[in-house]
Structure to design on (214 residues):
């Protein structure tokens, strides 16, 4: 005897929802991972509306370098240190390292060729040894940092950015150095006399900053 069965509509509905939830479950994590985290304490859409929504603000690297330099000296004065003089050769060294980190995809004081800040300085003809009375010191101190040009971004019917101001980026960089024991020691080094700041910006709006002191 042959038995014929009718399609089970309930089973088909359950199967339909199963595949729907499966696809949603695969898609949603990707979206969540791709979107940056927004700190609700940092932004209130009513009291703090976004600015410069759809165009990248003009942040000349030289202006950001000067702002960071001024903040560094402000921190040094606050801690009883004498200000450092801005040095164009050290700034060139710093810019070169910031660009190299972007171009070769690393974030470190030692470059992929194994060269230290002092090695790179000597290759540029920068004196790394200094006499201090009966003693002498050698080497170049270096701090590095990177910061996004925007505080948050929303992708919804286009892309909306909330850009940081030049002052906010400078504050973020210097604060990160002050909160790191090694970077803080370099920044507040009482023997440092000269400084160079070098800024480079990626196509993804990330700012790389290098500080060299001697």
């Amino acid at each position: 005897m042959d038995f014929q069965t009718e399609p089970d509509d309930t089973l088909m509905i359950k199967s339909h929802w199963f595949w729907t939830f499966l696809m949603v479950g695969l898609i949603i994590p990707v979206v969540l991972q791709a979107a940056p985290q927004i700190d609700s304490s940092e932004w209130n859409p009513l009291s703090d509306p976004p600015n410069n929504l759809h165009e990248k603000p003009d942040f000349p690297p030289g202006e950001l370098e000067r702002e960071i330099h001024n903040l560094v000296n402000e921190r040094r004065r606050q801690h009883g240190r004498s200000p450092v003089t801005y040095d164009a050769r050290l700034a060139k060294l710093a810019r070169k390292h910031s660009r190299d980190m972007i171009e070769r995809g690393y974030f470190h004081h030692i470059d992929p060729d194994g060269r230290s800040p002092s090695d790179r300085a000597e290759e540029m003809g920068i004196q790394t040894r200094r006499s201090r009375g009966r003693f002498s010191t050698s080497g170049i101190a270096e701090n590095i940092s990177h910061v996004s040009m925007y505080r948050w971004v929303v992708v919804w019917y286009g892309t909306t950015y909330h850009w940081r101001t030049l002052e906010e980026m400078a504050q973020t960089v210097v604060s990160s150095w002050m909160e790191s024991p090694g970077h803080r020691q370099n920044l507040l080094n009482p023997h440092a006399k000269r400084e160079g700041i070098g800024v480079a910006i990626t196509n993804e709006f990330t700012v790389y900053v290098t500080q060299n002191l001697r």
